[in-house]
Amino acid sequence: APDIPVIDQAYSKLSNSITVEWRAVPGATNYILTAQDGDSFVETMVKNSPGTVTGLKPATLYRITVRSINSGGKSQPSPFRKVNTVLAAPILSVRSLSCDSIAVSWKAVHMAAGFSVSLMRSDGLGRMLKQNTTNTSLIFTNLDPGTLYTIKAYAWNANGMPGDDFTYNQRTSPNAPVDVKVAFNSGALRAVVSWMPTEGALTYSVTVSSGLLKLRCNTSSASCMVPSLQCSSEYYVSVTAYNDAGSSEPTDAVSLKTIPCAPVNISIEEDEPGHLLVSWSSVSLGRYYVVFVKSDDGLEVHCNTSYTQCHFQSDCGFTYFISVFAYNKAGQSPLGDVFNYTTAPCCPSDFRAVFISSDTVRISWAPVRGADLYETRAAGGSAEVLCRDTATACTLSALQCSTPYNITVFSFSEARGTNTSCAPQHVATAPCSPEIKNISKEGLSVISVQWQPNNEEAMYVVTARGEAGLWHCTSTRNSCTLMDLPCGSAFSVSAIARSPAGQSLPSYSIPLETAPCCPNDLILTQVTQSVTNISWSAGRGAQTYVTTLESQKGQAKCHTLQTCCLLGCITCGTNYTVSLRAISETGLTSSCTYQGYSSSACCPSGVKLYRLSNTGIRVFWRASDETINYNADLRGSKGNFSCTPSSGLSHCDITKIPCGDVYTVVVAPVTDKGPKLTFCPKKIYS
């Protein structure tokens, strides 16, 4: 075995180890270091000197021995040395109390009589601060904010022997940022907060508070965007810097007033036609308001006011789009609700009323802006007449005739309703149709017509209409007379009423027939001594005729459809009155009188012929009246002969008659005019 080593020295630099130095032993390949503390020990094998035994307890007295080893075995332990391990290092707890101070604390160290703590900037700038203390804590002040410091501490024992040291890097908390600025984006309702970077700050926190509401924004840069701000709000903005040591004091709050909210409770009223009143509720933080009014034709106007209402001129039938904005230094409020207001449609113009009849009027007007529907209302009489239509014309029927009406055309729109400000038009209906009560004949061609007057200030016109033409009469009363109506004609009689308002419908027609016309020509021809033929021209309107010959001796009458008639039982030599009645199909009669008629004188009786000679003859007769003159006619193939006796004689002679012939002899009364009578009895003479 090798020789026993001799320890030159043994010492402790660390609290868990002791270093031993010895002289080398020839032939030794290894050495065993032993540290014994009472019954426990720690061994370590090393190659050569010096060697260190580790795993020891701090501040403990150990007996140190060394043995050499080779292949032959181990030597005996060397004489021991007593060595104390140094004190353990204090375990520091370090924190930055503020931006310029660091607090250091530790637990008590076994066998420590005091402690030494030093502090220095980690970048080597500045001086080192060192403090010795018997306490277990201390505070370094007047440090640089946000700066990394290296802190070293160790304990020493009663002999002043220092123990292990403990190193700790600690940064002071940052200083509060400066030059805080707030840029507000009114359109996006967000703010960008910026500041000057502060030394040692790793991150920043921006706090935006308004009442109980707090918004935060964290960033590592020198600006931060805070979204979702509320309108009409005042926020207080502060910035706090952070690093691993803690936070700075928040900056002084910067006031941020956002844009005002869009005005609400907007009401639009047309306080009078042509004037719009726009009002709204006051908006917090709003300094003034601008109202924009744009009509549907593209024209836009605006009103700038610090009050909560604005007046605008408006036109009928327009739709206005209205928006209200509030303003302050931050900018314009967001766009709120856009209201549209449609004014009442315009009142119809170019009003025209045309009467179709006395109870029907057609109303027309020019179309107006904004009207979807028109309502025509006629007020007057006992009832109100309504008409609704989308067209610009309306026919009002069932009106009362001869009545003044107030006719109003109202325009209507679905958005606004009816424009009730339209002025009425005064229209009077045409007169009522008169009712013919009676038609009476005042004369041959004179007809009186009576009616019921049912209008005020009306002129009545009566018309008789027939194939013969038109006849009129007028009156403002209840009757008038039709003059010079032709006979034998059929008429339809009607009446109308006229006034400045128009003309009534015609009354119901009353048929009228005038008496038939008397024949213009009447001819009486005596056919025989007791038969007379009467003929006449046709009388217009007559269907049958009754002719009468009347004398003191009697009457002869004939009723016929023809225009001639034979009357018998005529007394010769008698004066007759001649009358004719023309009778229409309906029984109307015209009595016609004519010049008197005298029947021819009576034919003589007892006619006898006496031969005077071969060439002469005497004719005898008995006269019916001695005052009558007679004429005798002798007619034969060889000639005609006649004789007329002197007055009072009842015979005459005819001479120079050719012999050998047959003659017809007629004795007839002599007439003043006209042809000779041929109906007296004839005698044959050879």
Automatic annotation (TrEMBL):
Domain of life per record: Eukaryota
PROSITE patterns to which the protein is assigned, alphabetical: FN3
Gene3D superfamilies tied to this protein: Immunoglobulins
Spans through the membrane: none
Limits of the Fibronectin type-III domain: 1-88, 89-175, 176-261, 262-346, 430-517
Pfam families: fn3
The protein's name: FNDC7 protein
Origin species: Dicaeum eximium
